[in-house]
Amino acid sequence: MKEEKAIFAGGCFWCMVKPFDQTPGIKKVVSGYTGGHVPNPTYEEVCSGATGHTEAVEITFDPEVISYQQLVEIYWQQTDPTDAFGQFTDRGDSYRPVIFYASSEQKAVAEQSKEQLQASGHFKAPIVTAIEPAQPFYPAEEYHQAFYQKNPAHYNAYSEGSGRKGFIRQHWDA
């Protein structure tokens, strides 16, 4: 079995775990922080905006079962790729949408997928999700891991109340 990693930021990491976690070929999904300049940041530090980090998920996957291209397609359908300043009710740099690539191949796949999404006309506004090189990834505190399983009522209320679920229904499930 081969293993590769993918890192995606799409707003609150609680909402980014479940869609990947329940997909065949995914070995592990970890909530955490990346893209900043402070080593081993805490949730409170990241929320302050002073670390430069973005909430993200690190996905360990088997490329013989699911391709990076397929992961990118799942990613698009969890986010508003037209909002560079956060996602849904979560605003600011720590919630910005980013595909962090780990190789030139991942970069090429992400860029081509972004171009295809823009050309598709699925969204009227420009696709502004950033595509950046991967940086050190720091796992978040344990209580953030697999949050949808640990606290399903809170997770469901948050993902609906934040506007994420409604956006997905409107733009992707139609």
UniProtKB/TrEMBL annotation:
<dbReference type="GO" id="GO:0008113">
    <property type="term" value="F:peptide-methionine (S)-S-oxide reductase activity"/>
</dbReference>
<comment type="similarity">
    <text>Belongs to the MsrA Met sulfoxide reductase family.</text>
</comment>
<keyword id="KW-0560">Oxidoreductase</keyword>
<dbReference type="InterPro" id="IPR002569">
    <property type="entry name" value="Met_Sox_Rdtase_MsrA_dom"/>
</dbReference>
<feature type="active site">
    <location>
        <position position="12"/>
    </location>
</feature>
<protein>
    <recommendedName>
        <fullName>Peptide methionine sulfoxide reductase MsrA</fullName>
        <ecNumber>1.8.4.11</ecNumber>
    </recommendedName>
</protein>
<dbReference type="InterPro" id="IPR036509">
    <property type="entry name" value="Met_Sox_Rdtase_MsrA_sf"/>
</dbReference>
<comment type="function">
    <text>Has an important function as a repair enzyme for proteins that have been inactivated by oxidation. Catalyzes the reversible oxidation-reduction of methionine sulfoxide in proteins to methionine.</text>
</comment>
<dbReference type="GO" id="GO:0033744">
    <property type="term" value="F:L-methionine:thioredoxin-disulfide S-oxidoreductase activity"/>
</dbReference>
<dbReference type="Pfam" id="PF01625">
    <property type="entry name" value="PMSR"/>
</dbReference>
<feature type="domain" description="Peptide methionine sulphoxide reductase MsrA">
    <location>
        <begin position="5"/>
        <end position="156"/>
    </location>
</feature>
